[in-house]
Amino acid sequence: MSAPSKTYTAKRTANHRIGEPAPVRWVLTAIALVFLTLFLALPLAAVFSQAFEKGLGTYLLALQEPDTLAAVKLTLITAAVAVPLNLVFGVMASWAIAKFSFTGKNLLITLIDLPFSVSPIISGLIYVLIFGRQGWLGPFLEAHDIKILFAVPGILLATIFVTFPFIARELIPLMESQGRDEEEAAMVLGASGLQTFFRITLPNIKWGLIYGVILCNARAMGEFGAVSVVSGHIRGITNTVPLQVEILYNEYNYTAAFAVASLLAFLALITLAVKTVAEWNVRENLES
Amino acid sequence: MSIEVEGINKQFGSFTALGDVSLSIPSGELVALLGPSGSGKTTLLRIIAGLERPDSGRILFNGEDTTESHVRERKVGFVFQHYALFKHMTVFNNVAFGLTVRPKETRPSKGDIKDKVTELLRLVQLEGMAKRYPAQLSGGQRQRIALARALAVEPQVLLLDEPFGALDAQVRTELRRWLRRLHDEIHVTSVFVTHDQEEALEVADRIVVMNKGRIEQAGTPDQVYEHPANPFVLNFLGNVNLFHGRSQAAGEGQSALTDSVAYVRSHDLEIKRSQQDGSSLKAEIKHIQKLGPSVRITLFIMENGSFVEAEQTRDVFHNLDLQQGEQVYVRPRQVRVFAEDYQI
């Protein structure tokens, strides 16, 4: 007697759901899964299978090649510079925008979104136009023997520009939804500006900040277009990991290319994992 | 500590929040700023706290000009409508916050802080909650913790911004009485903002009625209720019926008649089945609404074709046994007339 009543209650609760009927839900879920498989799972699988095609030994050798090691080092340096700088800027800008009103606020918000709307090639071209030999600062730089373009500083600048918005865009809605009450309460109780920031504001935006930093880092390490324009592709000196992948691929060295690409694929997987955890926590914070 | 508000003006863009507001609050008093939304009461409270700066005017604490001093130097306690508790800190750390942010020289020892917090939690009757987080507390409990937090720094002035606005009716009435008892015990100068006239009448020593950035009247609850200065105050502290007519000053002739409006409170309208004297008006009962302990009756006055509302207690209503559709006579027990040029 228990089995039939179980199915009966299950059906009843399903019918009492507010939402789409079951077939619609299955179809939508299936479409999402197909999309994910085609655009995410299959490419990732292809990268890994091609990387390990000739075995683990070849894979490790490809990664230890001097040019590749230099590329990894440059990518790490780029991320290590771009992410902290954008962290500081992002937090400051979000704090100003979310907690205050001032003239030029809308302009600032638009400027923050600018790197998103501009093609990465154009982002790189901006720096060529400013720092290149025929650029605005070209003669000045040459006179003082300062190398920006086709050297590491140029790559850093281009990366900082394209990863500008990530942290700010993450924090602004979070801080706006949290309002100013807690900060005002802290100030009335006698806290200084810094105390308020570190003891009240920062803990409240913790997970949004982590989320933003993860995305910023992923983009900083994976940027291709803007870096490609300013880098000059000098092997062993001005190649980041994405650029190195392109060079190897163009030389028909597919296994090595996919081996290096797999590094970026690993980064993507780690980013997704941390992002999921952070996102879950942000949602928890917003709901409380 | 006494508070003086002198000629405060505040504009937000083209909107005048406060227009030349002056007020005097003696030490130890519990004052209510009462008014509708947009009357400027919250803006005035925040200016006293130092959370907003006035365009002109002065604020004095005990005779000292504090208009220019920063909020953290004013030593006020502020309770927000939505509690503003620090959600990632325990109740204990919330209450202790004001003491832990003091510079090293003036900061009490850990033991002293613990004693103070425990004492305050006992005062607000939430001793066992020290390790809980704000999300685990009910609305009423949160507001009491917010109050304890504000009191921890021993402020000279306590400012409360619609402190019970976010709570349900039962909790609101409980906390209202509790705040009054607390004030009787601690005697700290307190100013609270509310739009609930019942709350102001029950809790405050003095009520300041505000409207459109101006003070309409300031006085004890009795003064403001029994002797309102103008129709706005009369209407805000109780439902009011309007009778348009012409009035004549005593001793003057017919030619001195002026258009005026007579204001009668709903519970000042007497209903009888027979004509008492010339001042009774014939009316038909259109609707009877029972509201807990009182009854609201909507009547249609035959003579001038207007609707009025009368309020009665249940026992009076039952004695009369009024029915819908009946024809009765209404007579105002107390009428107030103000000059016509004032609009509610």
Description:
- Chain A is an all-alpha fold and 288 residues long.
- Chain A contains 15 helices and no strands.
- The longest helix of chain A is centred in the first third of the chain and has 34 residues, at 66-99.
- The radius of gyration of chain A is 24 Å and the shape is globular.
- Chain A starts with a helix and ends with a helix.
- In chain A, 34% of the residues are buried.
- In chain B, 26% of the residues lie in helices and 34% in strands.
- In chain B, strands 6-7-8-3-9-10 form a 6-stranded mixed sheet, sandwiched between helices. In chain B, strands 13-17-14-15-16 form a 5-stranded antiparallel sheet. In chain B, strands 2-1-4-5 form a 4-stranded antiparallel sheet, covered by helices on one side.
- In chain B, strand 15 (294-301) and strand 16 (306-313) form a beta hairpin.
- In chain B, helix 2 (91-100) packs parallel to helix 4.
- The model of chain B has no long low-confidence stretch (mean pLDDT 87).
- Classes of the chains: A mainly alpha (288), B alpha+beta (344).
- The interface between A and B is medium-sized, with 17 and 25 residues.
Topology:
The complex is a heterodimer of chains A (288) and B (344).
Chain A: H1 2-15, H2 22-51, H3 55-64, H4 66-99, H5 105-117, H6 120-131, H7 138-143, H8 152-163, H9 165-178, H10 181-188, H11 193-204, H12 206-222, H13 225-231, H14 241-250, H15 254-287
Helix pairs in contact in A: 2-15, 3-15, 4-8, 4-9, 4-12, 6-8, 6-13, 8-12, 8-13, 9-12, 10-11, 12-15, 14-15
Chain B: E1 3-12, E2 15-25, E3 30-34, H1 41-49, E4 56-61, E5 64-65, E6 76-79, H2 91-100, H3 110-123, H4 139-152, E7 157-161, H5 169-186, E8 189-194, H6 197-203, E9 206-211, E10 214-219, H7 221-226, H8 231-236, E11 240-247, E12 258-265, E13 269-272, E14 281-291, E15 294-301, E16 306-313, H9 314-320, E17 327-332, E18 336-338
Parallel strand pairs in B: 3-8, 3-9, 6-7, 7-8
Antiparallel strand pairs in B: 1-2, 1-4, 4-5, 9-10, 11-12, 12-18, 13-17, 14-15, 14-17, 15-16
